[in-house]
Amino acid sequence: MKREIPVWEKANLTVEEAAAYSGIGLNKIRELSNDEQCPFVLWVGNKRLIKRKKFDAYIEKAYSI
């Protein structure tokens, strides 16, 4: 039995989940997370995950993206 965990309780989000969660487009999230200095991206092999708490903090501080 697979239990669905709400997005706001997950530590890491897929790019699709991050887009739905934040209202920011998939391409913009990919563009931001391609930067080697990106504070909220976690690479697991070729899979890109978004660290939800750091992503929230990034959005909170950002004036424009």
From TrEMBL:
It comes from the Bacteria. It holds the Pfam family Tn916-Xis. Coiled coil: none annotated. NCBIfam families: excise (TIGR01764). This is Excisionase. It comes from Kineothrix sedimenti.
